[in-house]
Design goal:
The chain is built from 3 helices and no strands. With 81 residues, it is mostly helical. The longest helix has 33 residues.
């Protein structure tokens, strides 16, 4: 794999991860009650506790996306690949 291919891969991976993150946020904002109801029944977790779990998931996902997709992509772009 060349550096150019790696840069392109990281760019697309970052775009897909950002898209998923935005989709998850929109779904939780628009259909939050339905999603909480389904997850609380499936996972046997109190609906009130799910809010903090959703926040934790989204924040960790964002950190991982920035650290492992966006930052390396930007570094390679700055280097000229």
């Amino acid at each position: 794999m060349t550096m150019t291919q790696l840069t392109e891969f990281l760019g697309w991976a970052a775009l897909l991860n950002i898209g998923y993150l935005l989709l998850a946020i929109v779904i939780l904002m628009t259909m939050g009650n339905t999603v909480r109801s389904i997850h609380s029944k499936l996972l046997k977790i109190d609906e009130e506790a799910l809010n903090s779990k959703y926040f934790d998931f989204l924040s960790y996902y964002k950190i991982v996306t920035v650290a492992f997709m966006i930052a390396p992509y930007l570094a390679l772009k700055i280097m000229g690949y």
